[in-house]
Amino acid sequence: MMNGGGAVGQQNGGIQHNGAADLVKARAQLLDGAGTRNPRLDPESLRGALVDLFELWLTSKGNELGITADSGLSVVAVGGLGRREMLPYSDLDLVLLHDDVDPKVVAEVADQLWYPLWDAHIKLDHSVRTVPQALRVAADDMIAVLGMLEARHIVGDEDLSNLLIGGVRREWRTGIRSRFDDLLAQTTARWQRSGEIAHRAEPDLKNGRGGLRDIQLLEALSIAQLTDSMPGLGPDVPGGGLRQAHRRILDVRTELHRVAGRARDQLRAQDADEIGAALRIGDRFDLARTLTDSARTVSYSCDVGLRTAANALPRRGLARLRRMPVRRPLDEGVVEHSGEVVLARDARPQRDPGLILRVAAASAQSGLPMSATTLNRLSEDAPELREPWPKDALNDLLVLLGAGRGSIDAVEALDRTGLWGRLFPEWGAVRDLPPRDAIHTWTVDRHLMETVAYASGLSTRVARPDLLALGALLHDIGKGRQGDHSVVGAELATHIGRRLGLWPSDVRTLSAIVRHHLLLPDTATRRDLDDPATVRHVVDALDGDVGLLELLHALAEADSMATGPGVWGDWKASLIGELVRRCRLVMAGEPLPEPEPIDPALLAAAADGGVHVTLTPGDGKHTFVVTVIAPDTPGLLSDAAGVLALHSLRVLSASLGSAGDSAINTFVVMPKFGDPPEAGLLRQELIRAIGGALVVSEVLAKREAEALGTGPGRYARAQPRVIWSPTSTPGQVILELRADDRVGMLSRLAGAFAATGANVRWAKVVTMGSAVVDAFCLELGDADSPALRERIESAVLQVVPQPAPPPPPTEAAAAG
């Protein structure tokens, strides 16, 4: 007997063998249980009791009709009864198997088995077949075979049932290679038709993405020996993992049947409070949060299962003769293998706490999923990041957040495996938290990541794209707690900013972003912009900080776009834009960039002439300072920056200056792989480049093509922006560039300046994650010439990444 069998025995003392009326009555007693004699069964016990009840009736009826061990007849259950997941009003899916039995006898037995169930208004999906007939149906019909994979013997000739069960599973395993594409197409079509359970107001618990059909899909892949039916998700997964998620969705669907009084798969809003109370979860919001957590766990597990299955498919023909997949390096300790991001063979997660963020950043940038095995290994072995975080860990976080929509899937994978919560313990309060008003499409945590993705497309509108990304990530972090979420969130942002290792001034700005993230939209849409007090209110709230105003303006747009359709439009954009314009008039202007002072020791070295290259440890564990002193000739900056890029040294910041006839350029770099090269090697390569023996631009182009592979990295997330500012020195002008980074960016920019005759007097170069904010003081023959500026700007824009072109119009749009 299954769990709950005792209840069946007590409440169904006898069932009439010649009908099913008592079966229906017994089911009603199970559903309506109340009081001490007939206690109300919890969902799991109720399902077990229903399985026992139907098995008892079918066994008794089968014995009455002569369906015995030596009869050549058997009854096999599929569907809910086959899975031992009988819901109150589930269809009864049965197959009557026969072997060398008179057709008249088979027909008579079938009628006597089916008609009582029909007469009792029990929904019945039935068939009468021989084993070969059933196997042919399974071979031709995907839905039928998925059902038969769950088949279970009920009564009669068990050997006959096992012939069917074993035959279906054997043919499924041997034929999965030719059927996998159809299985995937059918699954995708179902998801598109039924939507995501996690983000639907009235989800389809059975067919939606993350629902019970996906659990059955995983079981089918397991039977095909392509993956585990319950893949492990690591020790710290939220919600208890896949098995717990499966049970919770089953419990909700069980109570949905009980509340509705009939079979139903879609959870209606008006039933949610009653179901939440029956399951002792809480109100409809608590129920929605529980369902979202469970569905996202199932959805992630299904993605992993399908990916694992695809990689495990047996190869045939020429595919078997191909070489093993190449492991393409992506970052230190991170490679691509078989279309997934995995750890390099020499990676040591136990000694490398920043590896989690490097893996996630590589996944987000490349568009490749992280291997489940890799995530499990990181979950088990990677130590906690020390506080404050190392600079390279913060930089990897910024790369992750700046990757556009790729960051959403990467963070979702980290979160489902417990790694994101380890990095941000505060995330637990917003994880799966449902919105409280209808205009919000997403749960709070998904809304935060949607905002991050939209903010990455606005990064060139601000001077601090790093703070914009962090502000987008944390702006609603105060929700799910007591008090004003902006006030609570600002305090949390202060703690998080310190943990991340931000400068104290940046921590204050980040906290202010979270505290005032609603200031601009609320003021612009609710107050009179013509009233001077309105503008003064905003200026005073921001302490006259024009940089903070700029960040809040971009965040207001990203936040609105991430909320739902129609929340951001021309009306709202114009109101906020006008408010910001008026605030800027009142606030002081932004200070112009200035050159960094040059160390006297470097000035002394420059006075001696020649080419000097030094490499010393930087402030971070993986950062180094490269100083180049050389004759200040055209193309020197391009060659120096290019040599660094060719040796996989990523420029995080640079200060460029000169003294006499020598250039003094200092670069803060981080090796992408391993240790940096010796300073002597860099000097030799630089001398070769200056002399023309090494054409840096050509080698860079080849390296970049190899590094990009098949990922989306060739395109920018944000439109690049060039800002011109005058200086007090005649003939000089400042060009500020805000753009996405790329391999050898500084070298390419310097080459563009040299090609247009612009001389770089000094520069301040800063890389923030995957974005650059570079300021160049250019010496021009005619600094005020619009034509010259246009030529320089055009040359600059040709070497920086551009956003992807819009998709071609559909035929319908073209016809319109």
Automatic annotation (TrEMBL):
Its EC number is 2.7.7.59, 3.1.4.-. InterPro entries: ACT-like_dom_sf, ACT_dom, HD/PDEase_dom, HD_domain, NT_sf, PII_UdlTrfase/GS_AdlTrfase, UTase/UR. This is Bifunctional uridylyltransferase/uridylyl-removing enzyme. It catalyses: [protein-PII]-L-tyrosine + UTP = [protein-PII]-uridylyl-L-tyrosine + diphosphate; [protein-PII]-uridylyl-L-tyrosine + H2O = [protein-PII]-L-tyrosine + UMP + H(+). Pfam families: GlnD_UR_UTase, HD. Belongs to the GlnD family. Residues 1-329 are annotated as: Uridylyltransferase. GO terms for molecular function: [protein-PII] uridylyltransferase activity. Modifies, by uridylylation and deuridylylation, the PII regulatory proteins (GlnB and homologs), in response to the nitrogen status of the cell that GlnD senses through the glutamine level. Under low glutamine levels, catalyzes the conversion of the PII proteins and UTP to PII-UMP and PPi, while under higher glutamine levels, GlnD hydrolyzes PII-UMP to PII and UMP (deuridylylation). Thus, controls uridylylation state and activity of the PII proteins, and plays an important role in the regulation of nitrogen metabolism. Keywords: Hydrolase, Magnesium, Multifunctional enzyme, Nucleotidyltransferase, Repeat, Transferase.
